Amino acid sequence: SFLMLSDSLLIPKSLSTPLNASMHSVNMKHILKWSLLQASCPTANYSVQFQGEYEFYNLNGTWVDAYDCQEISKNWCDLTHDLASNSDYSIRIGTNCDGQKSWAQLPATFNRRDTVLLVPKMTVNVEGDPIQVGFSTTLSDMTVNLNVWQEGDEQNIPVQGTMANPFHFRDAQNSAILCHCF
């Protein structure tokens, strides 16, 4: 009997890094996406780390593990809660396959100030009392300033700030509604 060893078992292959990594940030929800490495490693899992200005300048360049994105098999990571300040973040994705690890870093820093804010869709239900004004695609911590006035009384417009969704108006018969979302 004899034992035959293949070269592929003796020489470790270099591990590919995730490709096409990009940040998608809409309405302050920050999703990192990348291409999977199915062909080169069907059992790959991924970990995401970030480094903000604080970690870079005050913690000697320390990288922080993204809370829900360690040793995951999916090709996306929700970094919304991790990237909580208006600072520039470096972000990297680690690939682990059969004990080998490689890292790919986004080519540019990310700042949540660059998020794309969508115009909220407003619906108004005027049947009965109170009038209901609802919004979709708003952020959970967004304050909506609603102005309601009687037609012809545009000079005395009270501003009502609310985080409620939907918002209810009492005694708002024959009123115009104007929304400023902040």
From TrEMBL:
Record domain Fibronectin type-III: where: 4-102
GO molecular function: cytokine receptor activity
UniProt cross-references to Gene3D superfamilies, sorted A to Z: Immunoglobulins
Signal peptide (UniProt feature, chain positions): none
GO CC annotations, alphabetized: plasma membrane
Domain of life: Eukaryota
PANTHER family: INTERFERON/INTERLEUKIN RECEPTOR (PTHR20859), INTERLEUKIN-22 RECEPTOR SUBUNIT ALPHA-1 (PTHR20859:SF53)
Protein name: Cytokine receptor family member B16
Taxonomic classification: Eukaryota, Metazoa, Chordata, Craniata, Vertebrata
